[in-house]
Design a protein that fits this description.
CATH class: Alpha Beta
Radius of gyration: 16 Å
Number of strands: 10
Low-confidence stretches: 162-177
Number of helices: 4
Mean pLDDT: 87
Shape: globular
Distance between the termini: 38 Å
Number of domains: 1
CATH architecture: Alpha-Beta Complex
């Protein structure tokens, strides 16, 4: 399956229920003549989680109306901190995702490797702190919301405490009625 269609500009931001399988296509999109480095991070579903063996798949849920503006804020803050960045992609899956499949992709191109590595690290760490996306882990003993949760913050606030991942709250229960 192919990734969602890239935009005409240099920021490719999106939330999708489609598989994020075409990592090579994302890499190719990031390559620019003035950039000598591309760093691509792919978060994949593994068979265990904190204290839980036998994970079979994950289900991601998102507050979709807030994801896009927060991705745009993340991109703006990343570009402010790393002005040499050429192209930036932040793509996240929602819905069920099987083992060994990508749930999130962050890719950055820059003139030099240090800026590309630092910007990509900032991108994934800030995504985890600022986007209202939650994962549900399905494992051999049942279903649990993912551990390591934290309060959702603005990208600028996350940037101020980079490296301090805190704790992220599970999503509120669905409203019935």
């Amino acid at each position: 399956m192919v990734l969602p269609t890239p935009p005409a500009g240099d920021d490719w931001l999106g939330l999708t229920s489609e598989p994020l399988d075409d990592v090579g296509g994302l890499y190719s999109w990031c390559v620019l003549p003035g950039c000598g480095a591309v760093v691509l991070f792919s978060g994949t579903v593994r068979d265990h989680a904190e204290g839980r063996e036998g994970v079979t798949h994950l289900v991601y849920e998102a507050y979709a109306e807030q994801v896009t503006p927060r991705m745009e804020e993340l991109a703006g803050e990343l570009r402010r901190r790393y002005p040499g960045v050429g192209r930036l992609a932040v793509l996240h899956r929602v819905g069920p995702i099987e083992l060994e499949r990508s749930s999130v992709l962050v890719a950055v191109s820059a003139p030099h490797r240090q800026e590309a590595f630092e910007a990509a690290r900032f991108g994934i760490d800030t995504l985890k702190e600022t986007l209202p996306i939650w994962k549900q882990e399905h494992h051999r003993h049942g279903v649990d919301w993912g551990g390591g949760a934290q309060q959702i913050r603005a990208a600028v606030e996350a940037a101020a405490t980079e490296g301090d991942m805190g704790s992220r709250a599970a999503p509120p229960p669905p409203i019935s009625g």
